[in-house]
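JOB MANIFEST
job_type = single_chain_structure
chain_count = 1
residues = 560
[input]
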Amino acid sequence: MSQATDQEALGRRGFVLGTAAAAAGAALAGPLAGTAHAAAFGWSDDGTHYVVDTGANLVFKVRKSNGDLASLVYRGTEYQGYGGMNSHIESGLGSSTVTIRQSGSTILVSVTYGTLRHYYAARSGENNIYLWTNKADTSVSATRFILRVKAGLFLNDAPDSYTYAPTTIEASDVFRKSDGQTRSKHFSKLRVIDYDYVGWSANGVGLWVVRSNHEKASGGPFYRSLLRHQSADGGGLYEILYYGQNQTEEQRFGLQGPYVIAFTDGGAPSASLFPGTLTTPWADSLGIAGYVGSGGRGRVAGVGITGRNTSYPYTVGLANSAAQYWGSARSSDGYFTITGVLPGTYTLTVYKSELAVYTTSVTVTAGGTTTLNTIAIPSSNDPSNASAIWRINDWNGTPSGFKNADLMTYAHPSDVRAAAWTGNVVIGSGTETSAFPCYLWKDVNSGLLVYFRLTAAQAAAAHTLRIGVTTAYANGRPQVVVNDRWTSAIPSPPTQPNTRSLTNGSYRGNNYTFTYSVPASAWRTDTSQYNVLRINVVSGSGSTAYLSAGTAIDAIDLLA
C-alpha cells in the first residue's frame, strides 16, 4: 500500500471531537452500554496497584505509590500508556498517599499529593471512570489530566496529529508535512463552549474524555486549548483546567469534576455524561474534598435580552475569582438559564458572539433561583451601532470573515493552504473583509494599506478611526499613518496573554479597541483621489517572521 493510500485509510478509522448534537442517536453508547460482565464488580490489591473491575468490560489499575492510572483494559485490550509513561495529573505527582474504599455500587480511589486531591470513581456495570481534581494552590504548576493511549489504536492524520509531519517548524510542537500542511496538538479548532467530549473511534471501540463543566477552569467559554494529540508513538486525551498557554485569567482553585473516561462500542458517549446534564447524587456521601452537591448550588435565569443583533449568537457568562459558568441565550428572545452555580456574587457578562456588550452583578444562593428581568443592551454598548463612513468586518469579538481566519484555528500561518498574508484593501471593492488578513505581524505584513475616498464634507472634518483586536503577541499593536500627512502616536499595549497565540490555533485574548483622532488636515481634498491608510505593527519585542510582534483583528472602521 502506498503512503498516500495508507494515510487515507488511517484517516477513515475515525477522528472525533464531540458535541452534544453528534451524540444524537447514540443511546446504545450510554453509560450502561455493553454490560456483559467480565467479572464481578469489586477491587483487589496486587501489591503495586489497586485493581478495579467495573463488572462490565472495563478493568483499570491505579498505582499505589503515586496515583497514576497505570492500566486501562477494555474488552481484554490494554489502551493505557505510551513511551513507558502512565496517565496522570500533570506529568505525574510523585510520591502520594493512595487509598481505596467501596461504598455500595461505587468504588472510590483517593490520591493525596501535598495540598492536591485527586479521585477516580467506578460504578458497578459501567464502562466509565469518573475523575475529580482539587487543586488548592500553586504548588502544582498547572491543572491537566492526560490520558495516554497506546500507539496504533487510533491513528489518523487530523490537524491535532503529527503522525506524518516529521519537520518541526516552531518550538517542539508545531510540524510541517511534506505536502506543506501543518500539524500540532494545539490545532483543536474548538472553543470550550463548542465541545462536550474528545476522543477517537475505531474498530468498534470509542474512547472518550467527557469534559467537566470547567467551573474551576480559567479563560471562559471561548478559551481554546489543546484537547488531544496523536502521533506514531501514541495518543493523548486531555482535560485542561488551567494551562499557561494564551491564558486571560488567573487560576481558580478548588474541586473540579467530574470529568469522565468513557468507553463505548464505537459510538459517542451518552449525553447523560455531558456537562450540564450529568448528575452524581451517588457521590454526595463519598467524602470528596470540596464536593458540593446539587442542593448546595443555585441557578440564574433571565427572561430575555433586548438590543441584540439577531445575526449573532449571544452567550451569558458568570465569573468571579472562585468559579465560572455560561449558557446560551435563546435566539428568539434572549431567554437564558445557568444551573449548578456555587453560591456567591458574580459578574454577569452578555457576549455578542465573543464581544462583551453588557455587564452587571448577580448574587446566587444555595438552592435558590436568581431571576433577572429583561436585560436591555444599550445601543452604545455595541460598536456596530455607531455610524461609520466605512467599516471592514463587523464587530463581534473574533476575526471571523477576514482572510485565513477559519484556517488559523487549526493550522500554522505558514501552512500551504493559507492565502498570501500581504495585499492591500480598497473600500468599495466588495472584498474589503475577505481580502484583509486576520492577523498582522511586524515582520510579515506590517504596513498594509487601505484605500478609500471621502466626500468633500467628510474630508472637511476630523474623524475617529477604530481598530478592534482580539489578542496580541509580544505587545504587537497598530500605529496608523494617513496619506503620509499624519502619523498617530504609538499606543500603549493593552493587557494580553504573554505566550504564543497566533501560531498555535488561538485568536482569543482580551478584546480591545484602539481609537485614533484623525484631524481634517490629514485628508485629501480632491474627492476623486483615494485616501491611503497605512497600518503598521509596532513593538520592541518578539522575534522574527510569525513570532514577531503581531495582533488579531476584529473590525476596523472610520466613524462619520
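[summary]
Residues 3-11 form the longest helix (9 residues).
Confidence is low (pLDDT under 50) at residues 1-16, 20-38.
exit_status = 0
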